Amino acid sequence: MRAVALALLALAAVIYVLTLDRAGFWGYVHAASEAAMVGAIADWFAVTALFRHPLGLPIPHTALVQTRKDALGRSLQDFVTENFLAEDVVRARVQRAEISLRAGRWLAEPQHSERVVAEASTMLRHGLTRLRDEDVASLVTGELLPRLADEPLSEVTGRLLQEVVGEGAHHGLVDLALVELHRWLVANADTVAEVVGERAPWWTPIWLDERVARRLHVEAVAWVADIRDDTLHPARHAFDTLLADL
Q1: Residue 6 pLDDT grade (very low, low, confident, very high; cuts 50, 70, 90)
Q2: CA neighbours within 13 Å on the CB side: how many for 228?
Q3: What share of the chain has pLDDT > 70, as a percent?
Q4: Which of 50, 149, 209, 230 could form a disulfide with 200 if both were Cys (CB 3.0 to 4.6 A apart)?
Q5: Residue 185: CB atoms within 10 Å
Q6: Helical pair 153-167 and 234-245, crossing angle rounded to 10 deg
Q7: pLDDT digits (tens, 9 = 90+) for 91-113
Q8: What sign does the CA torsion over 193, 199, 205, 206 have?
């Protein structure tokens, strides 16, 4: 490429000399060759001046990369940081990209979610087959158990429970437990009667035990239903207080 550029510069110089003092059409050719030489020399000087002194002459404002590389690097760093890596810029770009929304829409389609599950299960299966039992045992006994022993789990658990109770995140679990308990009580009246009968005094008649069991079952079902349907029930408040005091 350098040889081609020098050849073209030499060609322009030859044309310039041959058309010197010519009139008419050759005058335009002479002017064009002169402009070509000036442009070529100017481009060579501009590019060369960036990296070194042209012809080895210490011309001011030349060899800019060598003499001002640190300043140029800092300027480039500031430009990239302020225009591409600033927190507000990155946050705005991420928000406009809507990555989570697009990923959710993509995964909402059955064929995509099935593909992700299939690929993930395949990778997990291959990964687990490569694990050796002794490696897993060494990891558990040498790394996990000592760290768990050194961690203040009671303090961490207490803070976690405090945050869960403070935000009311446990209410969903309580609702689920009450629904399942009510369903079990309704479907297992005989089991309740059997438990009450086993714990009744030996001297009470059977008909009395059965009547007490039926009454206890009805009251238990109604009580659990009341707690399930009333979010402000005193029992719920008492349970929240118990968790908060742990």
Answers
A1: confident
A2: 14
A3: 90
A4: 209
A5: 19
A6: 150
A7: 888 888 888 888 888 988 888 88
A8: positive
Q: Give me Rg for the CA atoms of the chain.
A: 43
Token pair recorded at residue 226 = 């009341």
Handedness of CA 72, 74, 78, 81 (dihedral sign): positive
Q: Residues of 9-22 as b/e, b for ≥16 C-beta within 10 angstroms?
A: beebeebbeebeee
Residue 66, burial from CB neighbour count under 10 angstroms (0-12, 13-18, 19+): exposed
Buried b (16+ CB within 10 A) or exposed e, 121-148: eeeeeeeeeeeeeeeeeeeeeeeeeeee
Structure tokens at 160: 């976690």
For residue 232, what are the CA distances in angstroms to 130, 168, 171, 229?
A: 53, 13, 11, 9
Do residues 175 and 228 touch, judged by C-beta distance below 8 A?
yes
- pTM higher than the cut 0.85: no
